[in-house]
Q: What sequence folds into this?
């Protein structure tokens, strides 16, 4: 059929009422199996595609998932988003992507908008100061990435493991003068947990801890490099690839390219621009996949709240 069909057309072709077609489209369990099959057969044969907005207005599934990221320009979150989209597109859902800018108030506003649009569920990238009660209105229809939460399902990163892997890589090569540049400890994940992992590794291997923390930016790391760089420094571990690029740039200017720099994020650009570097892969893409699958389990099977940890690895 070349003309655009309506629900009324489908109802006439199936020999049922318009309300019955609506109930089939919204997965109403009260529809008899034989009737459902008859209507679905007509839909398949006609190629009819129901309007998502119309379904939403009827209170059924909109087949849309809201995704609230911290920063649209974040390479790590973009990797996770690719994992999310691969799963939800494969399941027949669309996505609405919004940016919180690390603001609880903006997150609350976005969630209110998504609720009005009747999205099926939400995936939210957490941040320092993220509050569990932000997601009260979504209950079992939400998953948080990057921070621990008890109220809804979550996928968090192995922040300690990332730095432990980097330190192990360096100490196994016999390096002992290893400095660290991180993020302010007020940020619990990228800041405090990763710094604590560095300090623990120093105690384990009896190394002198030399470190500085600042903002999550190239400029911050660039400026802090001179404060952790000594004549004997052999390596500088960084809490992220963004910081590692700032450090590598400063080392290049100082002609200290013999100093190994490690980052977190598995960003290809880091090793391409600066040869004496490596990066730990936190599994951002995989975390996105896990989060999307968790949400679909909630939406389709009323699954229990689940908390997962995405473990880090050396890049392939």
A:
């Amino acid at each position: 059929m070349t003309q655009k069909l309506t629900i009324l057309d489908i109802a006439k072709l199936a020999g049922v009422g318009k309300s019955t077609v609506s109930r089939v489209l919204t997965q109403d369990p009260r529809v008899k199996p034989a009737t459902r099959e008859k209507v679905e057969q007509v839909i398949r044969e006609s190629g009819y595609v129901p309007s998502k907005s119309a379904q939403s207005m009827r209170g059924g599934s909109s087949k849309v998932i809201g995704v609230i990221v911290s920063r649209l320009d974040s390479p790590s979150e973009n990797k996770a988003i690719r994992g999310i989209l691969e799963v939800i597109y494969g399941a027949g859902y669309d996505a609405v992507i919004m940016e919180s800018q690390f603001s609880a108030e903006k997150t609350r506003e976005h969630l209110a908008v998504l609720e009005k649009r009747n999205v099926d569920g939400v995936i939210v990238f957490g941040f320092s100061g993220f509050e569990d009660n932000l997601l009260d209105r979504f209950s079992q229809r939400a998953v948080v990435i990057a921070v621990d939460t008890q109220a809804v399902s979550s996928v968090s990163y192995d922040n300690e493991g990332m730095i432990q892997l980097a330190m192990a890589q360096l100490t196994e090569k016999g390096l002992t003068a290893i400095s660290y540049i991180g993020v302010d400890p007020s940020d619990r994940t990228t800041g405090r947990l990763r710094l604590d992992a560095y300090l623990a590794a120093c105690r384990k291997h009896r190394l002198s801890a030399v470190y500085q923390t600042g903002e999550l930016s190239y400029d911050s790391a660039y400026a802090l490099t001179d404060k952790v760089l000594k004549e004997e420094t052999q390596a500088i571990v960084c809490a992220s690839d963004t910081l590692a690029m700032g450090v590598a740039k400063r080392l290049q200017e100082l002609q200290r390219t013999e100093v190994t720099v490690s980052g977190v994020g598995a960003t290809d650009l880091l090793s391409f621009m600066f040869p004496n570097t490596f990066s730990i892969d936190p599994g951002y893409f995989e975390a996105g996949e896990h989060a999307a699958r968790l949400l679909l389990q909630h939406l389709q099977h009323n699954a229990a709240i689940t908390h997962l940890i995405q473990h880090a690895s050396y890049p392939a």
Q: What stands out?
A: The chain has twelve helices and eleven strands. The first helix runs from residue 7 to 14. The chain has a mean pLDDT of 90.
